[in-house]
Amino acid sequence: MTEHTLLVSLVLGLIEGLTEFIPVSSTGHLLLAGHFLGFESAGKTFEVVIQLGAVLAILTVYSAKLVGVFTAAPHDPAARRFILSVLVAFLPAVVVGVLAHDFIKTVLFETPKLIAVMLILGGLVLLVIDRIAPAPRHDDAMRLPLGIAFAIGVIQCLAMIPGVSRSGATIVGALSLGASRRAAAEFSFFLSMPTMAGAFAYDLYKSRHMLDAGAVNEIIVGFIAAFVAAVLVVRWLLGYVSRNGFAVFGWWRIIVGSVALVALSVA
C-alpha cells in the first residue's frame, strides 16, 4: 500500500464514519469522494465493507441498552415487540437488496451524476419534511407500532439508490409517520444494525473473489477511521437534532450535490 492509498483510505473511512448516521448519504459521499480522488475498489467492496466499522460503533454506544433488551426478551413482551419491530422494518431491505444487488452495484454505483442529483433532491425533501412533519405521536423509538416500523422499512429501500441516504430515508419516513425527531433518529440507529450488517455480509460474499491483500489493508485503515468517527457522531447526534432539527443536513446535501454536479460537468 502506498502512502497516497493509505491517506485516501483514511479520508474515506472518516467520511463514512462522519456521514453514516446523519441524513446526508454516506454512500453518496464515499462514491463522489472516491471518484474525484481517483480511488477504485473492485466491485465497490471497500465502500460497503468499511460500513462494518460504523455498525460496530453503534453497537458499542448502545451495548448496554441492547444487552438489557435481549436479556429481558424471554419475560418482557415490550422487549420482544421492540426486537420484532426492528426485524419487520429490516425485512423489505432483505428482499429488495437481494433481488436488485447486481443492478445497484454495477449501474447505480457507477453513476456520479445520479448521486449528485439524489443528494440535492433528498436535501429538498429533508428541508420540507423538517418543516411540515405532523405533530409527533411517538416519542419512544423502542415502542413504534409494527405497521409504522414496516412502513419505515419500505421507505428505507429507497436508499439503495446511492445519494438517497439510508438514515435520511428512515428519518424522513419516521417523521412523516408521526415519530418525534429524537425517536426518528434513534430508530434509524437501531434499524441500521441489521441492515448494514446484512449488506456487509452479502456484499462480502458476492465480492469475495475480487478481494486481495491490498484491498484488505485498505479496508482495515478505512474500518478503524469509520469506527472512531461514527462513535463521536452517534454520541452527538440525538441531542443536536432534538434541539435543532434536520435542516442543516438538508442544506449540506444541496450544497455538496450542486458542487459535485458543477465539478462533473467541467471535468
TrEMBL record:
Q: Which residues cross the membrane?
A: 49-70, 82-101, 113-132, 144-164, 184-204, 216-238, 250-266
Q: Where in the cell is it found?
A: Cell membrane
Q: How does it sit in the membrane?
A: Multi-pass membrane protein
Q: State the InterPro entries in the record.
A: UppP (IPR003824)
> What is the first-listed, main subcellular location in coarse terms?
membrane
Q: Which UniProt keywords apply?
A: Antibiotic resistance, Cell membrane, Cell shape, Cell wall biogenesis/degradation, Hydrolase, Membrane, Peptidoglycan synthesis, Transmembrane, Transmembrane helix
Which residue stretches, if any, does this entry annotate as coiled coil? none
GO: which molecular function terms?
undecaprenyl-diphosphatase activity
Known catalysed reaction(s)? di-trans,octa-cis-undecaprenyl diphosphate + H2O = di-trans,octa-cis-undecaprenyl phosphate + phosphate + H(+)
Other noteworthy facts: Bacitracin is thought to be involved in the inhibition of peptidoglycan synthesis by sequestering undecaprenyl diphosphate, thereby reducing the pool of lipid carrier available.
Task of the protein = Catalyzes the dephosphorylation of undecaprenyl diphosphate (UPP). Confers resistance to bacitracin.
Record family assignment: Belongs to the UppP family.
What protein name is recorded for this chain? Undecaprenyl-diphosphatase
Q: Which gene underlies this protein?
A: uppP
